[in-house]
Amino acid sequence: MTTRCGYVALLGRPNAGKSTLLNQAIGAKVSIVTPKAQTTRFRISGIVMRGGDQIVLVDTPGIFAPKRRLDRAMVAAAWEGVAGADLACLIVDAAKADPDDLAEPIEALAATGRPRWLILNKIDLLPRDKLLPLAETLARQGGFAEVFMISALKRDGVDRLLDALAAAMPEGPHLYPEDELTDQTERMLAAELVREQIFLQLRDEVPYGASVETESFSERKDGSVRIDVTVYVARAGHKKIVLGEGGARIKSIGSRARRDLERQLERRVHLFLNVKERPGWDEEAARLRALGLDG
């Protein structure tokens, strides 16, 4: 039987819903999701089976105007994901879409020469009489081969999109085992789930000044796992905020991240968090490489 397999890059502005779509497509949480922009910092691949065909969805950092070295590395990672893909999908938040704001990434995407589709997300938040003209405007602006309208959060239209993506993949053997969900390691997952809780629980200025790294990941004889994670912050004041009064905040972050990890890993987790001040980490090439970014 002939099989199909290929890479699909998910590209878009921050908070367009790329990570939500990836998680829905896979049926598991492999990419963290928060209400804050710029949550995704590096490329994460999710493997989706549709019949005998395999789609490797690549969730990329949001496209925005970079200011720091970290920002530039994130945006570069997004475009590198497009360069290696068989198909690029521009994900647009339909409820907040501005054709003028999207002109630059649309033009840049067209310049890559990659086959490209437009996916209007969050369609449940926009009246139909506004949705159709928006779709026509953006489709004409970007010369997209296909246009899909979905609500990733509600899974509306997602299965139709996945069937179309599978049919569009080139013929070839599978790149991953059929039961594999992501290229993300357990060490990476641990760091990301801790970072997700930092985004969810702390004020706006702290998450963007924080970096999370899994220092050790060791199996125990009883089948459980011990994970040691370090949270690096850019300022002394941030360290106090992350720790909280009497260490209450870091305990809450660790407790919720541990529960998420146990659900994902399906075993008991002993999670230990440490917070260190590291000014200027977002401008350090070595630190960015440790995060999986080209510094």
The CATH topology of the largest domain is Rossmann fold
What is the strand arrangement across the widest sheet?
2-3-1-4-5-6
Task: Give a quick account of the main beta sheet: strands, pairing sense, barrel closure.
Answer: 6 strands, mixed
Strand content: 15-25%
The SSE order reads EHEEHEHEHEHHEEHHEH
- Measured between the Cα atoms of the first and last residue, the distance is 43 Å
CATH class of the largest domain: Alpha Beta
Structural class: alpha/beta
Instruction: Give the overall silhouette.
Output: globular
* Name given to the CATH architecture of the largest domain: 3-Layer(aba) Sandwich
Helix content: 25-40%
Contiguous runs where pLDDT drops below 50 for at least 5 residues: none
| CATH homolog superfamily of the largest domain | P-loop containing nucleotide triphosphate hydrolases
Query: What's the number of structural domains?
Result: 2
Number of strands: 9
Tally of helical runs: 9
**Cα-based radius of gyration, to the nearest Å:** 20 Å
Mean pLDDT: 90
